[in-house]
């Protein structure tokens, strides 16, 4: 098993995650100490804030090169993105360029507001237009925004559900996630770490709370 972090903001100075190369290296070092061997860097992508997908990719590349330049020993980092679902996002040319490096997986972040039919339509259109496998980021967070029936509709989508390790520190979130796993939904795990203070790497939580077979299934989906 190659322990894989599917969701983190480890690239320096690109979003609200790591604020410096030093912070990034500290985050990576902590992850390695916690057993993580493979990291997917998923900086935020908000279509309405970016000039273009190309400019975002260039910005991401420069951030990655800055990190590697500071410590060439850093490896096993795949580039991806956490793409916010917005009106018309499925019509954005080149969206598939934001998929996880060397895969057909793309991570989408649902809106933090009342669920609406257009959200499902955008997700479905992205999947169909580009032939991408959808990963929905930190699905457990939306229990506070969506009704039970709306959550059920989301769970019926043919997607992968990403779980933040922190979910296992909350009784409500842990119960929801354990039911997902028990019911056979495809899930992957990530720290969603942003820094070394308020949102540090937290694989120690997951490794204590989740059985190795479930974690192995998560890690294998990237291969």
Describe this protein's structure.
It is a single chain. With 223 residues, the protein is α/β, with parallel strands linked by helices. It has one domain: Metal-dependent hydrolases (TIM Barrel), CATH 3.20.20.140. Helices cover 36% and strands 16% of the residues. It has a 6-stranded parallel beta sheet with strand order 3-5-6-7-8-9. The mean pLDDT is 96.
Secondary structure topology:
Elements: E1 4-8, H1 21-33, E2 38-41, E3 44-45, H2 53-70, E4 77-79, E5 82-84, E6 105-109, H3 117-130, E7 133-136, H4 148-155, E8 160-164, H5 171-182, E9 187-190, H6 203-209, H7 212-220
Parallel strand pairs: 1-2, 2-4, 3-5, 5-6, 6-7, 7-8, 8-9
What are the key terms here?
6-stranded parallel sheet, 223 residues, 36% helix, TIM Barrel, 3-stranded parallel sheet
Short description:
With 223 residues, the protein is of the alpha/beta class.
**Mean of residue pLDDT values:** 96
The CATH architecture can be given as: Alpha-Beta Barrel
Strands, count: 9
Number of domains: 1
The first-level CATH class is given as Alpha Beta
Give the topology string: H per helix, E per strand: EHEEHEEEHEHEHEHH
The fold-level CATH name is: TIM Barrel
């Amino acid at each position: 098993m190659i322990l894989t972090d599917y969701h983190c903001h480890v690239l320096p100075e690109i979003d609200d995650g790591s604020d410096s190369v030093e912070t990034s290296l500290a985050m990576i070092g902590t992850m390695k100490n916690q057993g993580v061997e493979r990291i997917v860097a998923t900086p935020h992508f908000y279509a309405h804030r970016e000039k273009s997908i190309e400019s975002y990719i260039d910005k991401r590349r420069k951030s990655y090169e800055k990190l590697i330049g500071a410590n060439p020993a850093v490896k096993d980092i795949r580039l991806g993105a956490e793409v916010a679902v917005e009106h018309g996002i499925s019509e954005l040319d080149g969206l598939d360029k934001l998929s996880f490096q060397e895969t057909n997986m793309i991570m989408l972040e649902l809106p933090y507001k009342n669920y609406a039919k257009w959200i499902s339509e955008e997700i479905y259109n992205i999947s169909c237009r580009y032939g991408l496998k959808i990963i929905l980021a930190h699905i457990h967070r939306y229990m506070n925004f969506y009704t039970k029936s709306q959550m059920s509709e989301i769970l019926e989508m043919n997607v992968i559900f990403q779980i933040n390790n922190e979910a296992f520190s909350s009784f409500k979130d842990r119960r929801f996630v354990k039911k997902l796993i028990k019911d056979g939904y495809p899930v992957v795990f990530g720290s969603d770490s942003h820094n070394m203070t308020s949102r540090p790497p937290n694989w120690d939580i997951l490794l204590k709370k989740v059985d190795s077979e479930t974690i192995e299934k998560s890690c294998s989906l990237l291969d």
